[in-house]
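Cross-posted from the bioinformatics board.
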Amino acid sequence: MSRPRPPRLLDLLLRACLPSDWRDDIARDVEELFARRAPLGRARAVLWYAAQILSFGWRFAGYRSRSRIGAEGLHPRRARTRMGEIWRETRLAARSLLRAPGFTVPAVAVLGLGLGASGTLFTVVDGVLLEPLPLPDSHELVALCEEHVQMEGICIGSIATTRDLVRESRSLSAGGVARGWRFSLEDWIGREGLSSGIADPGFFQAVGLNPLLGRLFTDDEIGPDGDDVVLLSHDLWVRRYGSDPSVVGRTVRLDGDPAVIIGVLPEDFVVPTLEWIEAWRPLHVDPSTAEAREWRGFLALGRLDPEVGVTAARTELETLYRGLGLQFDAIDDGWRLGMRPLLDQVVGEARPAIVSLFGAVLLLLLIGCFNVANLVLARAARRRKELSIRSALGAGRGGILSVLALESVLLAVAAAALATALTFGGVRLFRALAPAGLPRLDGVGVNGSVLVFIGVVALVTVLVFGLWPALGTRHRHPGGGMTRLRSTGESRRGVAVRRGLVVAELALSTVLLFGGGLLVRTLNGYASWDPGFDRDGLYVVSALASLGEHPDREELMRFWAGVEEELRALPGIVGVSTASSVPLRGGREATTYRPEGGEDMEEASLPSARWFDVGPGHFAILGVPVLDGRELSELDDPSTPSVVVVNETFARRTWPGGRAVGRWLEVPLDAGGVRRMEVVGVVGDVRPLTPGQPSEPEMYWSNRQLGRWGTLFLVRASAGTADLGARVRETIEGIDPTVSLGTMRSMDQLLEEPLAGPRFNAVLAGVFSVLAAILAVIGLYAVLSYGVAKEGRTIGLRMAMGASPPRVLRAVLLEAGTLAVVGIVIGAAGALASAQLLGSLVHGVSPTDPLTLTGTVVLLISVSLAAAALPARRATRIDPSSLLREE
Amino acid sequence: MPKTTLGELEELVLLAVLRVGDDAYGVPIIDELGRRADRRVAPAAVYVTLRRLEDAGLIRSQLEDPARGKPRRFVRLTEGGIELLKASRRTRMKMWDGLEPILGGS
């Protein structure tokens, strides 16, 4: 393994501080010392290295070969004098910075802003993506995902398959399944619908959990004949029972059935993605049944044996899964096993957004650094006279270096202080703005490594650009600057470097602005979602009937019909329907089906579609048009033939060119066998929320023929919606108090949730884009106004010779325009090349959208010219006679 | 040549060079100062001192290829350096002489 090396840039800086004949030797030795420190923490080692640069710069700057032996140490007066010198020079440097607010304020602000934004996102990346999960040895935890080719990215697991994998695998030391499962709790305090779940003993074992009180589940408690027991979360135990340890062993009623509280989970126990669960019951399904293998509605977790590598474990589990596929029909060719670290599974969809934002922030930081570089270099060119005078008066290169270094350090300290404050504020703002679904947001907080990051970047930026001018004076005769005082200024190289920086800034701003534009357009696409029905006055509430009260499915379906009837009678309500899901709420259920005409199809090649069970009049209430046939009605009940309604896309894909109404299709049932249904109607497609996404095939069967215990009530209200939620709740609870009800929400409220993510991305990207554009404009302005000030004499002379103001104006604007165009063209090419990186965040707009690109280019050219206008006007107002007098 | 006396760090560095022997270059010298004299000296201070000692002719430095690793600047004491250390010790011994009852033997 090669030895850790300090960053190249710091290495160069260190070398610049060393005497030439010992340069390589000392640098090698310091590198050796660095390599010893690096394993203890690279960031700290880099900080140490940066401190060495100052230390060497300081000591060798003051070193003279005439120095007498015995002049060091043991001489307090001299030491005091040197401290006094440092203090004096620091004050000088501070005063020099304060005297130039036109330089200091923008430099600190720009660097502080860039670093503050980076610090914020660095904190988020650290907290969400990098920080390990709060579980013992969490790196050993993996999600065991059964993935179907037609449901990409969806990770689900089944009871029986997980159990087989854990039992037969040598790479897993434990494993099990869990999922949310609502039930109501009734005790001596009262009744409450709980955010609850079910799990098997292996699940808790895999997580590595010991209960705070009592015990966990045992294998005997699993299945339909198991004991009725319940585990409480720490939160529920504190909230409901006031942390009373004597509740363990007491009996409560769950969904009406008695159950014993057997334990309380520890406070810090959080199951990722199931953190909301307050009470756990053992699985009520017999793991040995076929149903237990087909019901893939679980989070399946495993704990890897630390002795076995991840790749070996993955290979073994995939092989075992294929073996199970040969034994059981439930695992056909479409299924495969995906094993991934639990952290990846938890962070999942948030990763691309955060990584893109981090990229945007780094671009912003880079622009900020270029800007500071520009300001520092422009200032240095202006100070050439001062430095030359110092040099002529006998200040060595080291002395000048130390003055510049001190100024740079002061700048870095100020920028880092600003950035630290901005980071604390930024993280709070981020947490307030972030969409509710962003995982692990609670754990995000500013920590030491973020502050080290800020300090190191601030110091390196200002040191590199702050010392550059001094390094540039290396071989210059002290008189050089003096004799050049009257000439028009800095070297061609200096001008080229600063122009290059402006071009780079504009290029990066183009990339950011274009990316921001795409995200804003994506948000617009979401916000202008037109599902093809009327959202106004439409409300949704979820309801779950108790299995204890309604054990019979047919009775249950009559019960739901009765509730619908009662709700329809309420004043202000113009329509009521039920459905297993509605647009924006649920709708993840999909199944394969065998269509009429597909009798010879292999099981594995059957098409699949999303399915819903809905009540009569569902489409009329939503306002979705019936294109052919009829919609579901009260007459479709268990006594009549099974019917189904499909959407336009389903009809077109399944029977292209033919009529769907009158044909049949078969779907597999959970309990085994199939159910044949006749298509009685075709309804219009409901446009997906994600802009640019095509409609999916969907089928709707009647919940009067195949109803379930959970349903959503859709209520269309005409007026008086203020207490609508309360009235609906009262009505339903009046009929059956055991029904667990969710909170009633309007379609517009439901739309807020999926909008949160894109809005968040768009707001942040918008902020970054605007900041980037502002920074680029400041950079351009600094270069041009400096150029005008510098060229003032030439311009004045030209005007004295008869050049007209418009001609001077044109020359300045031409320079600005050229820089802008070069930068923007490079940036546009970069933006188009990097657009694919935004792919998963941009919907409904091409990642190379020409309209957004044109807008970006026009905007940047306009602001560039505006930035140039002020210095250009100043140029035309130069009074030639005053300049001549100065000569 | 004017009469020369050593500063404390200079004396310690010269002694460290002698102690480390043939392998004396920057890093082992810094280590030796830390280990034996219990002094955490900034590397830059050590190199500036070495430089000063070389300019005064008390040590001689030479770039050498060690048996293993990269070339290093090794330093050795000159005759003058050794003489100065001896003189320094003589001076101190004279000053210490007779003070043991007050300052103790160690």
